[in-house]
From TrEMBL:
Organism whose genome encodes this protein: freshwater metagenome
Lineage: unclassified sequences, metagenomes, ecological metagenomes
Pfam families referenced in this protein's UniProt entry, alphabetically: YceD
Name recorded for this polypeptide: Unannotated protein
């Protein structure tokens, strides 16, 4: 199967200053991403501009993905689309440790797309920045209503430190 993210760079390498636009939509498995945070069946939008320089090819643009998950505080389902900015360098001879390699006069965008998406996907998203979370005692969602349990549960692992606080009042 042909890799849709393989871009012929021969003409760009011959003439510095040459540019090529890439706009493609691929499923996550094309870039070897099997991550439950990505909404199943949605495509990754790759919109890039590749411009050749004397020492490589600069790739600028955006990658669009749709993610899903649970709020880290209240466990409400969370989902949103992300537009990730891309600024990468491809080189024939790697002089920059962060650059990607140009192989056989082609740039393979798949590893860059994979790395960029996986680094930007949120590990612990929030449903809203001021999410109150769940009551630690009764488990009620404090974003929707107040609980009647009194709420202040202390972790028994902190009991020794709480005892010190009682011995040395401020």
């Amino acid at each position: 199967m042909r890799n849709p993210l393989l871009v012929n760079a021969l003409e760009m390498l011959r003439r510095p200053g040459t540019a090529k636009d890439v706009e493609i939509f691929v499923l996550p498995d094309v870039v070897d991403i099997d991550d439950p945070r990505l909404v199943p069946g949605t495509e990754i939008a790759v919109v890039l501009n590749c411009e050749s320089l004397s020492d490589g090819i600069v790739v600028n643009g955006h990658i669009g993905v749709v993610f899903q998950g649970e709020c880290r505080r209240c466990l409400t389902p969370v989902g949103a689309s992300m537009d990730i900015a891309v600024h990468e360098l491809y080189q024939l001879v790697l002089t920059d440790p962060d650059a990607f390699e140009i192989t056989n006069d082609q740039i393979n965008l798949a590893p860059m797309v994979r790395e960029t998406v996986l680094l930007e996907l949120p590990d612990a998203p929030l449903c809203q920045s001021d999410c109150l979370g769940l009551c630690p005692t009764c488990g009620i969602d404090l974003n929707h209503r107040k609980c009647a349990c009194g709420g202040e549960a202390t972790d028994p692992r902190w009991a020794a430190l709480d005892g010190l606080r009682d011995q040395f009042p401020e």
